[in-house]
Amino acid sequence: MASAPRPRTTTRDPEELTRRLTAWLDARLPGAKAVDVSVPESNGMSSETLLFTVEHPEPPLRHCALRLAADPAAYTVFPVYDMPRQYRTMRLVAEHTDLPVPRVLWLEKDPGPLGAPFFVMERVEGRVPPDVMPYTYEGNWLHAATDTERAHLEEASVAVVARLHDQAPVDEARFLALPGEGSPLRRHVQAQRAYYAWVVSGMPRSPLIERAFDRLEELWPDTEDEPVLNWGDARIGNVVYDGFAPAAVLDWEMAALAPREVDLGWMIYLHRFFQDLTVTFGQSGLPDFLRRDRAEDTYARLTGHTPRAMDFYTLYAALRHAIVMLRVACRQIHFGAAAAPAAPQDTDTLILHHGSLAAMVQGSYW
C-alpha cells in the first residue's frame, strides 16, 4: 500500500485552468483574477477541486474552492456529474440546518469556461483526516491524537449526520428523490445496480459484488422508516476540522433521500475499510475509533432513533464501496498505473476490500 502509485485524479492542465478561471472571474467581477491556484493533496477521484484566491481591486480577498465536474474523456468514476444538484443541496443544508456547510458563491452550468460545469464556494481553513496514507496509519494528526481527542471528533462527526437527518426538511429535498419504483431504499439499491452495470459494461463481471446483491435481498429490512436527506458520502475524510470539531462538511454529490441507516452504515464501514487495510499491512490502526456499537449508540442518543438492520446497511455500504473501488481500479489500469488481472475470473481481486466484503456476505465479519 505504501509503495502503490497515487491514483491519477486529473487529466487537465493547471496553467490552462488558471488562465480560463481568471477570464471567467473577470466577466463577473471586472478586474478580478485567480491567484495562488492549487490542487489539494486530498483531491478526489470523481469531481476535481481547485483552491484559489480571488484578487480584486476592492477588498477583501476571497479564499475559494472550486468543484469541477470530471472530464468526461478521462475515464470518470461516475457516469453523471450533476453540479447544479450538488450546489442546490449545499444551499438547502446551509439554509435549514446548523451544519457547517461552506457558503456557495457561484454556479456555472455552461461547460464552456472550464470544460465542464462547476461551482465555487468559500474555502474553510482546517485539517482533514487523510486518505493517502490513511489516517489509520501512523504519522498523521488524527493517529497522533489522544483517545479523548479522537472520542470528541467521533462524537461530533456522528452528530453531523444526526443533525442533518433531524433538521433537513424532506419536502424541500424532494429533488434528491431517486428515480424508479418502490420505496426510497429500493430505489437506492436499484441505482447501485445500474451503477454496477455501467462499471462492468464491456469487462468481466464481479461474482463477489453479485453475491453481495443477492445477500442484500436475504437481509432486506422488515420495515423501512421514512426517508431523510442523506449526505451520501458521510465519512470523516469529507470534513474539515478546526481542532477536533467539524468546521466544514464537504462532498454532497451522492446526496439522496434514503433511510437514516444508509448514511450511518457508510460512516461506520468507510472507517472499517481503512482500519482493515491498515491491519493487513502490519499496523494496529485505530481499532477503538468509530466502532460500530458506539456509533450506533451515539446516533440513537442524539436522535431518539435506534438504528435497525445494521448488518444489512453495513453490508450495503461495503457493496457500494466495492463498486467504486472496482471502477477506480479499472481507471488505474486505463492510465497504466496498475496491471489488469491475468484472468477474467480474477476481477474480484481488483476490489481492495474483497476479503471483508466476502466475510460480510458469509455473515462472519462482525
Overview of the molecule:
The chain has 366 residues and is of the alpha+beta class. It is 41% helix and 13% strand. Mean pLDDT is 93; it is low at 1-9.
Describe the structure concisely:
With 366 residues, the chain is of the alpha+beta class. The chain has helices spanning 14-28, 83-96, 141-144, 147-167, 184-199, 207-219, 260-280, 292-303, 310-334, 354-362, and strands at residues 33-38, 48-55, 62-68, 104-108, 118-122, 228-230, 239-242, 245-249, 256-258.
Write the layout of secondary structure elements.
Blueprint: H1 14-28, E1 33-38, E2 48-55, E3 62-68, H2 83-96, E4 104-108, E5 118-122, H3 141-144, H4 147-167, H5 184-199, H6 207-219, E6 228-230, E7 239-242, E8 245-249, E9 256-258, H7 260-280, H8 292-303, H9 310-334, H10 354-362
Antiparallel strand pairs: 1-2, 2-3, 3-5, 4-5, 6-9, 7-8
Radius of gyration: 20 Å
| Helix/strand order, N-terminal first | HEEEHEEHHHHEEEEHHHH
State the shape. globular
Distance between the termini: 24 Å
Strand content: 5-15%
**Biggest sheet statistics:** 5 strands, antiparallel
Number of strands: 9
Mean pLDDT: 93
List segments where confidence is low: pLDDT < 50 over at least 5 consecutive residues: 1-9
Number of helices: 10
Helix fraction by DSSP (H/I, runs of at least 4): 40-55%
Order of strands across the main sheet = 1-2-3-5-4
Task: Give the structural class.
Answer: alpha+beta
For the structure shown, list the relevant keywords.
366 residues; alpha+beta; disordered N terminus; 9 strands; single chain
